[in-house]
Amino acid sequence: MKSDIVKKGIERAPHRSLLRAVGCSSGDWDKPFIGVINSFSEVVPGHIHLQTIARAVKEGIRSGGGVPFEVNTIIVCDGIAMNHPGMKYSLPSRELIADSVEILAEAHAFDGLVFIPNCDKVVPGMLMAAARLNLPCVFVSGGPMMAGKLFKNNQPRLVDVSSIFQAVGETIAGNMSEAELEELEEVACPGCGSCSGMFTANTMNCLTEALGMALPGNGTIPAVQARRIQLAYEAGQQVMGVLAKNIRPEDVITADSIYNAFAVDMALGGSTNSVLHLTAIAHEAGVDYPLSWLNEISDSIPHICKLSPASDYHIEDLDLAGGVPAIMQEISQLLRLGANTVLGKPLGEVIKGSTVKNNEVIRPLLQAYSATGGISILFGNLAPEGSVVKSAAVAPEMLVHQGPARVFDSEEAATTAIMNKGINFGEVIVIRYEGPRGGPGMREMLTPTSLLSGMGMDKEVALITDGRFSGATRGAAIGHVSPEAAERGPIAAITDGDIITIDIPNRKLELGLKQGEIEQRLNSLPPFEPKINAGYLKRYSDKVTSASTGAVFAD
User: Fold this and answer.
1) Is residue 387 annotated as a catalytic residue, yes or no?
2) Which end of the chain, N or C, is more open, meaning fewer C-beta atoms within 10 Å of its C-beta?
3) What are the CA-CA distances from residue 501 to residues 177, 225, 380, 481 (Å)?
4) Of 3.40.50.2000, 3.40.50.2300, 3.40.630.10, 2.60.40.10, which CATH number belongs to 31-145+194-351?
5) Can you spell out the DSSP letters for 426-438?
């Protein structure tokens, strides 16, 4: 066992003494040491209950003959970090999480790992670490939050955190009172769990099932249900089986499983952040997966499930409808069913017998919302390396849009203009210098898109950025425009009034200028001046690569 280097031999007597200090006994030296990588935090709703999950995991490990050691990573709540400088740290935390897991696992010579993530950057950060370390492991998340309920005229309305962001816009527009906003605020997030729609956290937890790295139910069993604790116990037991069979992430995270994850993402209409994260995971696993391949997947995978923010359904409804296994069974003829899983059997066997229990939540293939997937990659002279849009959440009338640019060099400037009602119908808002390097940190921009939606402008105004969007974003919001402005991408050449054409069905994003004009404007720009010149964000800005390659660190 790998852990023998800290517990076997005369020269390891000091190590054993320290291990006895944390509760080990002489009977533990012949047992596998399993790291339980927790991301518990008292400031994040999705993580406040993870000590309970970890206890169940550890009991499962002990029942299987292992010795569990719970250790922790950091976590950022994207909702709390939204629309202020704190959001610059969200995406960069992904790299720190991956690095910290590597440090914890290697320094303490764990034989296997159980990962307990839940929210946005922790899931991909831990998956990146799993691929890098290549130790036997299993994932079990903390589970989704239940939707909130707001009663009006004796009728319940299901709400979530995206409802609040949108309500701010409604209040500014005069369509909601501040008292009504406060009433909504009090019920939208009713307790622990990752925010209840098909936002980034839940998207990634669902896709961890499709990757084969988690047990069925990982993405959808609600945080507050006993089944979540049972799943955690089973994950603890399962890691012992994974260790015994020597199943490694390199056996599971392959080109086929990455394909399956993207396919399920298309069927679900998941968060656009999944594109950023899955490409980063593929990079760590040594799998080449260029953005252009995603449109090929989208062309073949129908969009069969719409959850908030694209509908009034939530993750709890998907769970009752059969969860991710039912989604995969419905599109099984389009998946690579031979892909391996941590269950020690191929994906096809894992989902065998799964059935759809609600044809409204998970539609049959022949009644799909659209014949193509819920995410599209747009290319063109404005995004030579690509850009990403959650096409499932775009109103039909905005799938093709042409309008004059309204340019802002920061999210704050754009948000101020929107709140002051300074945006005109038909415009294309451009928010730049918010990319991985330019931000730095590639902030999510749920606030401006939610304001537009709440003010009734999401069907009249488009938004493009070299930053990114929350999974809760809806409307013609196109992010990850690459190359970013800080790297002198074409987005840096746009001036107010330039005509921008968005054609989502044909995957085009075009600036109405000739290539020579774009190059001339870019050549006349002054050198990029970093916004931050100290601390982690400075180091991050110096090392991070393009969003088109997952915003990973340069090798």
Assistant:
1) no
2) C
3) 36, 47, 10, 14
4) 3.40.50.2300
5) T-EEEE-S-STTT
Query: How far is it, in rounded angstroms, from Cα 405 to Cα 433?
Result: 16
DSSP designation for 528: P
Domain spans of the chain, in order of start:
31-145+194-351, 151-187, 376-549
Token pair for residue 32?
Answer: 């596998």
**405: part of which helix (H) or strand (E)?**
strand 400-408
Q: Quickly state the pLDDT bin for 159 (edges 50, 70, 90).
A: very high
In terms of Cβ atoms closer than 10 Å to its own Cβ (0-12, 13-18, 19+), residue 539 is middle
Of 141, 470, 541, 546, catalytic: 470
Task: Tell the CATH topology of 376-549.
Answer: Glucose Oxidase; domain 1 (3.50.30)
Rounded to whole angstroms, how far apart are CA atoms 345 and 339?
9
Average pLDDT on 327-356 reads: 98
**Element at 502 (helix H, strand E):** strand 499-503
Work out the number of other CB atoms within 10 angstroms of the CB of residue 333.
8
| In the block, residue with structure tokens 């116990």 | 233
Q: Which residues contact 542 (CB under 8 A, 6 or more apart)?
A: none
What is the reported pLDDT for 364? 97
**Could you tell me where the DSSP H helices lie in 352-455?**
411-419, 446-454
What pLDDT score was predicted for residue 555? 81
Q: According to the model, what pLDDT value does residue 487 have?
A: 97
Residue 473 pLDDT > 90:
no
CB 148 within 8 A of CB 172: no
Residue found under tokens 């537009």: 452
- In which residue are the tokens 């999974």 written? 471
State yes or no: cis peptide before 92, omega within 30 of 0.
no
Q: Could you tell me where the DSSP H helices lie in 65-199? A: 78-81, 90-107, 122-133, 161-172, 178-187
If residue 114 lies in a helix (H) or strand (E), which one and from where to where? strand 112-116
Model confidence at 340, in pLDDT bands (50, 70, 90)? very high
Q: Is 19 left (phi over 0), alpha (psi -120 to 50) or beta?
A: alpha
pLDDT above 70 coverage of the chain, percent: 100
pLDDT at 393: 87
Residue with tokens 């995991």: 57
Would you say 242 and 112 are in contact if contact means Cβ atoms under 8 Å apart? yes
Cβ atoms of 76 and 46 closer than 8 Å: no
Contact between residue 468 and residue 444 where contact means Cβ atoms under 8 Å apart: yes
Q: Which helix (H) or strand (E) holds 537?
A: helix 535-543
